Amino acid sequence: MSNKFLPGKIIVISSPSGVGKTSICKELLTERRKAEGWKFSISYTTRERRPTETDGKEYFFVSQEKFDELSQKDFFAEHFKVHLYHYGTPRPKIEETINNGGLLLLDVDLQGALEIKSDYPDAVTFFILPPSITAWGNRLTKRGTETGEQLKVRFENARDEVKSYHKFEHLIINDQLNLAIDQILCIITGSRDAGNSVSSKEVEAIVKPIINLSAEQIDEIIGCNDENK
């Protein structure tokens, strides 16, 4: 099947941890869309592989030494230390998509998303917000993939990340996964001019409590969910 997108299209999905950007990317990449030229950009990371992960599927897991070596060779379109580990987006896949057509989906943190948008101005950027601070806290803590200390870092980083939501072209509230995906698809395919369908009042109601999170509130969120496990 021929590629629908010529030249290739770069789609950047970003959000604080636990909001659902990885789930959204997985649901977007159906077999039919893969046959139409949709692909996922697999990032490199220095963090340890989780038991449910496969090297080369979710991430390429490499040592800090290898990561530094690739960085020095300008292999990454963007790379930053996120939370406690380094992550990088390989440049060759982006260039290949732009030149040969298709669509490349990137699941990256805020810093990386803005760096890619700077280098590739035609990239389309999405920032995913949780429906509420309560729902977000529950999702993040119930994953069971981070220690208490790692969770604190993620909550603390989110306070700064959400301040930059206005730097993204499109805002999506991930209250119901299927609806969030439909909104993103409408924008990508141009089936209708979805624009920023989220009102400034809705955004403020979500973002403000996250920005104002205190250390005591973070400890309480983590503690309450630990008790409920």
Report on the architecture of this protein.
- This protein is of the alpha/beta class.
- The protein has a domain at 9-40 and 103-227: Rossmann fold (3-Layer(aba) Sandwich).
- It is built from 10 helices and 9 strands.
- The strands form 2 sheets. Strands 2-7-1-8-9 form a 5-stranded parallel beta sheet, sandwiched between helices. It has a 4-stranded mixed beta sheet with strand order 4-3-6-5.
- A hairpin with a 2-residue loop joins strand 5 and strand 6.
- Helix 1 (21-28) packs across helix 8 and helix 6 crosses helix 10 (215-227).
- The longest helix has 14 residues, at 148-161.
Which features would summarize this protein structure in a list?
229 residues; alpha/beta; Rossmann fold
User: Biggest sheet, strands in spatial order?
Assistant: 2-7-1-8-9
Mean pLDDT: 89
Q: Give the number of helices.
A: 10
- Summarize the main sheet: 5 strands, parallel
Strand proportion: 15-25%
CATH architecture designation of one domain: 3-Layer(aba) Sandwich
CATH homologous superfamily grouping of one domain: P-loop containing nucleotide triphosphate hydrolases
In whole angstroms, the N-to-C terminal distance is 47 Å
Radius of gyration: 18 Å
Write the SSE topology.
Layout: E1 9-14, H1 21-28, H2 31-35, E2 38-40, E3 43-45, E4 59-61, H3 64-72, E5 76-82, E6 85-90, H4 91-100, E7 103-107, H5 110-119, E8 124-129, H6 133-142, H7 148-161, E9 170-173, H8 177-189, H9 200-211, H10 215-227
Parallel strand pairs: 1-7, 1-8, 2-7, 3-4, 8-9
Antiparallel strand pairs: 3-6, 5-6
Helix pairs in contact: 1-8, 6-10, 7-10
